[in-house]
Amino acid sequence: MWLNNILKNTAALVANPREGLGKQADRPESGQRPCVVVIGSGFGGLNTVRGLAKGEVEIVLLDRNNYHGFWPLLYQVATAELVPDSIAFPVREFIHSYHNVTFHMAEVSDIDLDNKHVSITDGQPISYDYLVLAAGSINNYFGNKVIPQNTFSLKDVEQAVEIRQGILEAFEKASLETDPEKRKALLTFLVVGSGPTGVELSGALAELIPPLLHKFYPDLTEEKSRIVLVEAHATMLDSFPKSLQKKAQAHLGQMGVEILQNHEVTGVENGVVTFKHGSKMNAGTVVWAAGVRASPLAEKLGVKLAHGERVPVEPTLNLKDHPEVYVIGDMAYLEGYKGGKEAYPGVAQVAIQMGHQAAKNILAQVEGNGLENFQYVDKGQLSTIGRRDAVAEVFNLKLSGFAAWLVWVAVHIYYLLGVRNRLLVMLGWAYNYLTFNLGIRVVGGWPRHETKK
Length: 453
Ligand SMILES: Cc1cc2nc3c(=O)[nH]c(=O)nc-3n(C[C@H](O)[C@H](O)[C@H](O)COP(=O)(O)OP(=O)(O)OC[C@H]3O[C@@H](n4cnc5c(N)ncnc54)[C@H](O)[C@@H]3O)c2cc1C
What we know:
alpha/beta; FAD/NAD(P)-binding domain; binds flavin-adenine dinucleotide; disordered N terminus
């Protein structure tokens, strides 16, 4: 009898996976209202959920992690300024007050547009009436298979902690190394790519490394560490106005960052970095921040992908042949930025605003109303250079120096989720700012999550 019941229930779950996955005691039966599956609890996904939660829909939110990552502060975890938990907010806390949202920590592995379901690696497929793809981006190595194996990446909290560990381990190895050339290589830290991530990271490394060596590694005080920012082109912070690019470059130079422009990295192996024009450099730690491409889930849609493997979407943010499927944020390719032919960039504001628009349009579809085109309100861009300097372009105002840094602080605190995280970040900044203390210097902690079978 009990076996019969189990078999019956399992059959029902396969037939309607939402029954088992999405249902909660205090909510209307799923099936009565259309189900929206949202993939990704990043900037785009969470803002879609926010917009949808007030509508007559059931929402199933899926993410491989159980947290929302605030990536703009990731480099501060990598450089030991902030604790990892301060930039990661639990998704279940975010959805707690919504009566029609269910969350599952699940890796989405496939999307079946014809049968309207998504597959997850550990569990039954989940069917949808509407789908929102907001799975972000991954590093772009431009086809090179060796570079990813030999460089650090800065795309999630675990990777930021790996960089922090790598830096601290390099110091420990250098203090044991007797060969001066090898010691010099161990103390060379190279960042590839001079977009906002590369600029912020190299500035933070320049502030972290020399005083840390001076204070805690007396046997290395004679050694000079090198922080090198490498760029394939002749410019840095490409999306910023020229005047702010120059200020950022000058300030990084004053901080001791060596800037190598027109140096395209073609290989990194056994601690040796090779450049396209033939020269080489020894570097113990190399971080790749030289470009991104859309999540590989883009390839599951069977559509012709655009630049950066992004998914071309209609101005209403859905697919031409599948209007019930929306693609937003770093995964979406939509031209019209600044009113021209340029595609909207992969930044948090675009993802947030696309999330709002996708939610509005889905609710319009449910109610039988017309859809609106995505209209972007450009609030500007920011990049820090060390702990009291930044460049900012806010509503057409160009700022640099301490004033820009204050804007940067206010914006980041405003967009961080959760009072606890805001307090943790502000406390960390105040402590570092006032004491110039050097953050978390323990090798270990926050291991990569692995599911126990
Ligand atoms: C280091 C760093 C610094 C940045 N700094 C800035 C900045 O200063 N200003 C700015 O505007 N932008 C910045 N960005 C860019 C900004 O963070 C992105 O543009 C934004 O996060 C895009 O939002 P999204 O929702 O598309 O993707 P994300 O916010 O990346 O969210 C994607 C989510 O999808 C989940 N996911 C991915 N694949 C799967 C899968 N197969 N199954 C289940 N879940 C999956 C991920 O776990 C993640 O939670 C930075 C990015 C990085 C990496």
